[in-house]
Amino acid sequence: MENFVVSARKYRPSTFKSVVGQSHITTTLKNAIRNNHLAQAFLFCGPRGVGKTTCARILAKTINCQNLQADTEPCNECESCKSFNASSSFNIHELDAASNNSVDDIRNLVEQVRYAPQSGKYKIYIIDEVHMLSNAAFNAFLKTLEEPPSYAIFILATTEKHKIIPTILSRCQIFDFNRIQVEDISNHLQWIAEKETIETEQEALHLIAQKADGALRDALSIFDLIVTFSGSKVTYQQTISNLHILDYDYYFKVTDALLQQNMSEALLLFDEILRQGFDGHNFIVGLSEHFRNLLVCKDEATIRLLQVSQQIQQRYAGQSQQASLSFLLSALNIASGCDGSYKGSKNQRLHVELALLKMAHIPSVINAASIGDLNQSEVKKKVLA
Ligand SMILES: Nc1ncnc2c1ncn2[C@@H]1O[C@H](COP(=O)(O)OP(=O)(O)OP(=O)(O)O)[C@@H](O)[C@H]1O
Ligand SMILES: [Mg+2]
Ligand SMILES: [Zn+2]
């Protein structure tokens, strides 16, 4: 049997163009390579799992490639690229500052920098989690960073830019990596699923992408987990039960009940949700998000803020038409009030139930108000007549 390799490693991009959602960075890097305008020190910062180490490696490989492609991508075939890909290159040095953060580690590195590369143009030093270096190590490093030999390039990577001392920051060209959009993550998962001949439901991938909160590595790990659990088909139902996420169907049903002022139905649904082991607080937060989604459907201009799969967009649009703007605003208001005071409440179940009852009451309040308006305008008409 073939050894299982986690998707995050198996599908680590090996060219700039296969990096997802960071085109502002890859384009700039490619331009710099093409125009021979490379800085000697880079700082890659941004959230975890978005491609910092990946881009550092691609950059390292590209600038040493002996057969650079017309689109400034590495060829992946020359000797240099091959040895990079097999992690056996002498020109790339990776130091994990999380575990090698002493002055001696940095001194070792500085010592190595003094020797020119034996083959290839550049020697590249990637220092990951650079914020973990001790102060003394930072200081030992400063001099080299300021005046490195012409063949040395440093790529520092960190998730915590604010912990880097200004003297280092000012010596580096800084690149801020983005969190990756749900849509981009979901498309990337789809691409991997096709390669692995795994059948997927779009909604399942969307859910995984949402759960990953912008980190592609997290998305790939969750994906692997669900594939392990469910085999060659990844369905929405399996995904929600695996990730213990409340089915959005419930939010639609609860909202329907509220719109029809059906208090008992709303309370019974909430009871069912609790009995399935879901938490009241998560429910109210999820319900707020559901209202928010209905709200953004109200306007063509904001519809793109709806980050759900295409199949379910229709459903949001449908329910959004049934719910008036006043209902949604008032319901959101009640839900966020409930969310804010949930932790302090002694009877949390009742707290949510009360919020639901208030929400179910909104349509009649709106009705009464509009009848009141009508009456007033009738009165006005009469007065004016
Ligand atoms: N932008 C991206 N495009 C494609 N794949 C990505 C991207 N970002 C992350 N990945 C996937 O996630 C894995 C980990 O990415 P990488 O090591 O580059 O993240 P990182 O930003 O260095 O994270 P950390 O801060 O945790 O070190 C990669 O092997 C790749 O499979
Ligand atoms: Mg990294
Ligand atoms: Zn090459």
Can you describe this structure in just a few lines?
By secondary structure, the protein is of the alpha/beta class. Helices cover 57% and strands 8% of the residues.
Average pLDDT for all residues: 91
Estimated helix fraction: 55-70%
Main beta-sheet strand count, sense and barrel state: 5 strands, parallel
- Global Rg: 28 Å
> How many helices?
17
Name of the CATH class of the largest domain: Alpha Beta
CATH superfamily of the largest domain: P-loop containing nucleotide triphosphate hydrolases
CATH architecture of the largest domain: 3-Layer(aba) Sandwich
How many discrete structural domains?
3
Q: Catalogue the ligands.
A: adenosine-5'-triphosphate, magnesium ion, zinc ion
Question: In sequence order, what are the helices and strands, one letter per element?
Answer: HHEHHEHEHEHEHEHHEHHHHHHH
Q: In the CATH scheme, what's the topology name of the largest domain?
A: Rossmann fold
- Can you count the beta strands? 7
Strand order of the largest sheet: 2-3-4-1-5
Unreliable spans are: none
Distance between the termini: 91 Å
Question: Which structural class best describes the helix and strand composition?
Answer: alpha/beta
- Tell me the fraction of residues in β-strands, as a range: 5-15%
Shape call: elongated
Structure, described:
The protein has helices at 7-10, 23-34, 52-64, 79-85, 103-113, 135-146, 166-169, 182-195, 202-212, 216-230, 236-243, 248-259, 263-275, 280-296, 310-322, 325-342, 348-384; strands at 41-45, 92-96, 123-128, 152-158, 173-176, 199-200, 233-234. The protein is α/β, with parallel strands linked by helices. The protein folds into three domains: 7-176, 3-Layer(aba) Sandwich (Rossmann fold), CATH 3.40.50; 182-243, Helicase, Ruva Protein, domain 3, CATH 1.10.8; 248-371, Zinc Finger, Delta Prime, domain 3 (Up-down Bundle). Strands 2-3-4-1-5 form a five-stranded parallel sheet, covered by helices on one side. Helix 5 (103-113) links the parallel strand 2 (92-96) and strand 3 (123-128). Helix 8 (182-195) packs across helix 9 (202-212). The longest helix has 37 residues, at 348-384. It is elongated, with a radius of gyration of 28 Å. The model has no long low-confidence stretch (mean pLDDT 91). The structure holds adenosine-5'-triphosphate, magnesium ion (MG) and zinc ion. Adenosine-5'-triphosphate (ATP) binds next to helix 1, helix 3 and helix 10.
